[in-house]
Amino acid sequence: MVDSPDRAVHWATAIFSTLLANLTRDKLERLLAGYLEQLLGGDAEAARQVGRSMVENDFISPATLEQSISHLGEHTPVRPAQLAALAAGYAEALRDRALDQQEVTRAASINAMRRAESAVRASEAKFRAVFRSAAFGIIITSLTGEIIDVNESMLAMLGYQAPDLARINGGELVHPDDRAGLAELARQLIASDHDSIRVEKRMVRSDGETIQTHMAISLVREEEGSSPYFVAMIENMNEMRALQTELVRQSLNDMQTALPNRAQFLGWLEGAVGSKGPGTVALLQVDVDGFRGVNDAFGHQAGNRVLLHVATQLRTVFHDDVAKVARIGEDEFGVLINDPQDVPAVIALVDEFTASLEEPLWVEGHGIGVTTSIGIVARPARRGDAADLLRAADVTVGWAKRDGKAQWALYDQERDERDKLRYELAASVPGALEEGRIRVDYLPVRSLTDGTVLALEVKVVWDHPEHGMLCPDDFIDEAVGNGMIVRLWWWAFEEACAQVNEWRRVLGDRTPVLSIDLPRRLCQEPELVAAVFRVLDRTGLPVSSLRFELHEHLPAQLTEAQLEELTILAERGAGLVLDHVTGGNPGVEQLRLLPLTGVKFTGPVVHGLDEGADEIDEGASVTMIARASLLGLPLHAEDVKTSAEAARLASLGVQGGQGPHIGLSLEASAVAALLLP
Prior knowledge:
Blueprint: H1 4-15, H2 25-41, H3 44-56, H4 62-75, H5 80-114, H6 116-133, E1 137-142, E2 147-150, H7 152-158, H8 162-165, H9 176-191, E3 196-204, E4 210-220, E5 229-236, H10 237-251, H11 262-272, E6 280-288, H12 291-298, H13 300-317, E7 324-327, E8 332-338, H14 343-356, E9 361-363, E10 366-368, E11 372-380, H15 386-402, E12 408-410, H16 413-427, H17 429-435, E13 438-447, E14 453-464, E15 468-470, H18 476-481, H19 485-507, E16 513-517, H20 520-523, H21 528-539, E17 546-551, H22 554-557, H23 560-571, E18 575-581, H24 588-593, E19 598-601, H25 604-607, H26 615-629, E20 635-637, H27 643-651, E21 656-657, H28 668-675
Parallel strand pairs: 11-12, 14-16, 16-17, 17-18, 18-19, 19-20, 20-21
Antiparallel strand pairs: 1-2, 1-5, 3-4, 4-5, 6-8, 6-11, 7-8, 9-10, 13-14, 13-21, 14-15
Helix pairs in contact: 1-2, 1-4, 2-3, 3-5, 4-5, 5-6, 5-10, 11-15, 12-13, 13-14, 19-21
């Protein structure tokens, strides 16, 4: 979970280059952190106050507001209603700021006129400068409405020429329905001790168009002998509201593709799962495959072309009569279909969209292939959960990507539940280690000729309080995916080294070798050799008692430097066994670079030797083992399930075996009972 300070750093990065305010980066981040606390903990009114505060702190560049709303909508859980309220508060504060400046102008004009007798020319020059240059309309009238003067902004606002107003009373410029109310306010102002009022009233342009205005009307009371008069500063609220509408539009749309953005899409989802929503919905998440590669290879302009191309095809297939389309991430699009006919109909539309991308997109002479991975979720809508619906789509598109990309996947709740459990387990590994719920068991590797224990393979098991005893297959793969495998592996490695060394003190050279899988992630450690020997130094286990098992595909995936680290381990006495050999090609050239000390078969190679096995499978197994024998290395087999498999493997020269027929994993105490006299 990202907290407010981190979000504030990201927001500051998004808007820093647009600021007109003189703020340090540190002060800006602290200010934005406060805004985020208000937004995430408050309602629409809190968001409105944030918008006003932004103006008060001189965040007055349109680009600052645009970037802020875009960033908040796409990267924070701020709701669309709050974004609209923020934009409204911002617009209101801008208006008030302008009016405050108008008050300063008004005061200057009034003071200038009051000093007319002593410095007429100077005062008139100053007042006229303000009068002419003001961006808002200024009109001066007598108490009876006779127009004394207007500035150019006022003439432009109402569409009049100066001579036209000589024949018009000021009251005639006000909408007929508002004249009586404004006249009454003027009488109250004259009768009171107040100098000014603010009011919203309609006015009528020369072409008959009605405009909503905000008026700041001041009564100027001159010294005795001079008649008082009104000075009114008038702002066109139609323009202000048009600006506010545009700000809201920008807050809900993606400027690059002209599609609705994530904030608006989330609003659609919330409406779809409401009590008045459709009966069913289909949600599609469309991810552009290899988008970062396109940016890196051809530049961001090419990447933008790809996004526009995908957006265009989505709009064509999923047009307004069919669905709603939005850009919901950097390279992600969302499609919401209300009351789809059925799932096959949705899939047909997906296939039509996929087919529309088959032709390459030509950018500056490069024919760029564009493919997408698509997650499809179809379910009942009413009283559902928008966040869960979006999560399901994200999970499903992840399946499509992991299964090879350029395809669609359909949401499967059972698969999702299994995945969630595995993710939960992998993320909980540190806590389980701290609570002592994870332990190291040992799988005996026995001689297929005399049953002697040749090696003990490390098997990490987890005594889970809810799910019972978990084997490595239940959580190791996800621990590799989220990086927890590093901590877990080093813990298990040191535990096992210490335990085997205890047995070695009694058994001496008769102690079975300690065997442990070495994942690819551990091979990427920059000082693997040094780290291994630090553990060996702490536990006292000699390196000759250690054997690392490498998946058959691992050598082909390693860099030259990583292969060198493994070679150093082998040269210093550790064994290297090629594991999980199933009959494929494990990368012959890479195998020659590693000083292997053994090969371990599994799967079809082992089961093809069982009694009653298919003749073709049996022949392939025999051939594979015979070819491996040419390496002159000890051969081993895992997952040996029957006595027939064990006997046939032994006859082909395979020395060691493990699996259900040989024996199950044992706790350390059971191993001690097995090995020690």
